[in-house]
Amino acid sequence: MFYVNELNTFLRDNALYLALGMELIIVIIIAILLISNYKKKHASDVLNELFISLLEALGGEHNVVRMEAKGSRLTIVLQDYQLLNQEALKALGIANFVLMTNKITLIIGQEAAVIAKSWSVKSR
Fold it and tell me: What are the structural domain ranges in the chain?
């Protein structure tokens, strides 16, 4: 019974501080969620811009026959390799690519899977 009285007294004396503390915690959690959501949306916008610029550097959407991701590499088969703009690829930050007779392999990092998925959705 003694502890219950002490607890009641403590809560009564410090109710304002406890309420302010809880409110601060809630505001911090909401801020973290908003910032996280903004970062995801911003990253998605940047990736979409990269995808569009990549298609342009590859000679346009109609020039891409097949695109698939293999780890950090993006393997692409084109209809006409004359339309490939290697300088535009370098300007996008894709300095490492291997041009073969029947395909081009771009080393772009972890975005490869997302870009290949975007292509498969767009080409349907």
Answer: 1-124
